[in-house]
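Notes continue from the previous slide.

Worked example: a multi-chain complex. Inputs as given:
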Amino acid sequence: METLIYRFENGTRELPQQAQVVGVVSSGNLEVLIEAASLDGACVIEIKTAAVGFGATWAAVMHDFYERWKLADTRIAINDMGATPAVVSLRLDQAVETMLGTSA
Amino acid sequence: MSSYLESNARERVQRLFDAGSFQEFLPPAARVISPHLGQLDAPVSFDDGVVVGSALLGGQPVLAAAQEGGFMGGAVGEVHGAKLVGLLRRAIAERPAAVLLLLETGGVRLHEANAGLIAVSEVMRAVLDARAAGIPVVSLVGGSNGCFGGMGIVARCTNSIVMSEEGRLAMSGPEVIETAGGVEEFDSRDRALVWRTTGGKHRYLLGDCQAIVPDTVAAFRQAAIDAIAVLRTGPVELTLEALEAEQALLAERIERFGALQDPLEVWGALGIGQPAKIPMLEAESFVAAARGHRLGAP
């Protein structure tokens, strides 16, 4: 297992208080827990992944995610079992949309 | 119409109970995770693979648990089992109309060894305690991982089991039987054989489950409402008489079918006219074909 933590400052979009979880910790999949948290406007993402050695890929996917949503005061925790970058991006968007009540 | 099989645990509790009524205990944000998996450098899940909470079902208050088959095959570890036990104990205090167990599990989580085994035995005891306190416990089995091992026993400790044809219920899983007995005993790759032997239709014909439904969440919901309505008309405690009747049923099964090789032969021996057609029938016509032939039915 590998633990990766990313912090993005100066977000602009705040989320509702109610925490949400999407996805399942199964092979090629991940769960995303998303919560509002007082973080001085930052978005903090903590990843625990079974696939060791993909830090550069995670950094790129997290950066793209932050650029899409610019979340402020948000804590995201991920348990990953080897999801591909595309799946990770979709799950993160699903998590935000579930928070915002805009998912199907 | 949403498939029960294809839904995950959280989708099932959202879709099966009255809209918006499910309230989770120990939600993922509480981060009550397995203390063992981290030591083994294995992935954890924030709900340890089971969702527990309260809900309304047809307006009646119920407590419910849904196992997530995607996380370690729904296997029961220490925390997962403790959540089930806590829910069943809460039922004795709160006296809901019923406890619903949406089971999808390979049984004990081997990573957690004795803690997992003890957890499963505690769940069995908690089911029987809830029943002894007059709370009906209903199992729903329709996930792709089936319901196996110690949790198969738990299911049979409950008052009533609702299955789909796709659901499977047994003690040892197909691969376990093949490993122990050899491929001539049981070919775990023969999917038709696996479902004939452990699937909902065989369980229904042998009297191991009380209802069989099409693979939709709506059908499971209605069957659960119906099962609770039936159970609330009589005592739900496990009695010596019921145990003796079960023992007699099992003895009769060994006596009548013990020498047979395939469930098709068992169905023929039950008096089903064209057993080979059974796997192709939809739930409704299957129930009609089973009428008057299945074991354990009044």
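Summary box: The longest strand of chain B covers residues 50-57. The radius of gyration of chain B is 19 Å.
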